[in-house]
Fold:
Amino acid sequence: MDVPTGAAPAAVRLDPRDNVAIAIRPLAVGEVALGVTIGEPIPRGHKVALAAIAAGERVVKYAQGIGAASADIAPGRHIHTHNLAFQASRQDHHYCEAAATTEYLPVEERAQFMGYHRPDGRVGTRNFIAVITSVNCSATAGRLIAEHFGDAQMAAFPNVDGVAAFVHGTGCAMAPDSDGFENLQRVMWGYARNPNCGGVLMVGLGCETMQIDLLLECYGMERGPLVRTMNIQDMGGLRRTVDAGVKIVEQMLPHANALERAPADASHLMLALQCGGSDAWSGVTANPALGFAADLLVRNGGTAVLAETPEIYGAEHMLTARARDEDTARKLMERIAWWEAYTGKHGGTMDNNPSPGNKEGGLTTILEKSLGAVAKSGTCTLEGVYRYGEPIDRKGFVFMDSPGYDPASITGEIASGCTLAAFTTGRGSVFGSKPTPCIKIASNTEMATRMAEDMDVNAGRIITDGASIEDVGTEIFNLLLRVASGEPPLSEAQGLGDYEFVPWQIGAVM
Structure:
């Protein structure tokens, strides 16, 4: 990274091969930055041309093409949506060429945390009673059951983190052999099985497409003291369902509370990697720092899960090069092809993704956004590629297919087994999740200061204070261990997570 010395550097070039730099602060006409005279105002975080770029020529950032100039661009001029156009990736996909053997730490040297040990050997970072609804028609019943258990009711159960309702807007009028139906099944089962849930009550209406009995049969779940089911029609209406549900949860609480935290090594942790409300600094500070933390977790035997398939588009070659084998690389490319067909069928393109906020923060094309987003995956070998909400059965760095829409993406990662989440943001997303706690990592110091009540880590110090990516990444890793042991991140302390359960809906509603 080319950062000029001095008290107030003006711009940064990320790689010597780049023909653009990023403005660290607003640049005025006539200023000189990295040897180039500024020819028009450049907003903070936006790109400035370091050389003449002809129309049709590639614009290069991260030593990768992020699009093509749509007009001639002179040195010192602003590069953004008005003169930079999306250009389909021309990268070659050399499968597995960068895959390397991960240097795992010996078991006795692995980082430790205090977690909830489940009978199947997995370890949770939280201990929730989950009320999961099969259909929107039972959503109110699920919420009313969970809302009964406030601070006064939970005071006697210090080892239980709460009773949380996971309700949604679908579950019926859907084809039972469709992708959408299978997604919802995997999500319901995945939340029920997540190590952060010590007990599960499933609540249905009774006549919906998403039948609870079918779910139990498909996934081999057995009813017991900590897995209970009910539906409104059999119970005789809403009030009776809520009353019965409250009694069921009251019976579960002593069982769940009997489990206490105990030492476990970091190999039991599964981390959801996520970014939202990204800006130009996300790929420079927060995402690389999270990637360093992800590598630390993998070296400690744990699992790091990247998602958001549309937000790796144009950078997928950086992942297929790290694939453990060609089959894994092909699985990733199959998901890319599915998304190209899916967006095309609905009249969109893969470059639709950057949001207005992303663009205001300095990002222009999906290629630019994706190259920064992939940085949070670290450097370890890609060990597997999974469908949305599919159980993850391999350790190390893996990928799970999902939309770029953050709540839907993290919902899938939690269903796949994630017990921690780390969310980078440049614009200031205020996301939180249950039953999996989520830390927030700010990409820039200005936003971290303005939203100090929401940001757990300020990765902007890499630019403003000269902190290293390794230092901030280690800070993130150590915070994750503390959160895994029960320390609440800011999103959890503010009560976020009750409305962020958003299963990915695909297909016709009939």
